[in-house]
């Protein structure tokens, strides 16, 4: 059995995507090659950014999956992150709303990949 789960997000430019995600997450990559960069999100969890797997990813193509950042702190924390990301010019796909499990919002990275911010279970 594996001891780590890596969520892979396909991107056009791994270094550019790493700068975007690093700024949002407030962290530096834990592993870097020109086409594959990871962030250590804690014990057993990594975020991988992989380029060169698809030609010309377009933000216009709908995505059916998303990276979910589960945060502590409740609605005030989620609102604060939303305002911070909005001020950075991050594309917001859906503003904060109650989805039954708590306040959440959805943003997109420059390649159109969805990023949800939601409360930690």
TrEMBL record:
Q: Which residues form the VOC domain?
A: 1-120
Cited PROSITE patterns? VOC (PS51819)
Q: Which InterPro entries match?
A: Glyas_Bleomycin-R_OHBP_Dase (IPR029068), Glyas_Fos-R_dOase_dom (IPR004360), Glyoxalase/dOase/EhpR (IPR026275), VOC_core (IPR037523)
Write down the Gene3D superfamilies for this protein, in alphabetical order.
3.30.720.110, 3.30.720.120
**Record-linked SUPFAM superfamilies:** Glyoxalase/Bleomycin resistance protein/Dihydroxybiphenyl dioxygenase
Which protein is depicted? VOC family protein
* Organism of provenance: Streptomyces justiciae
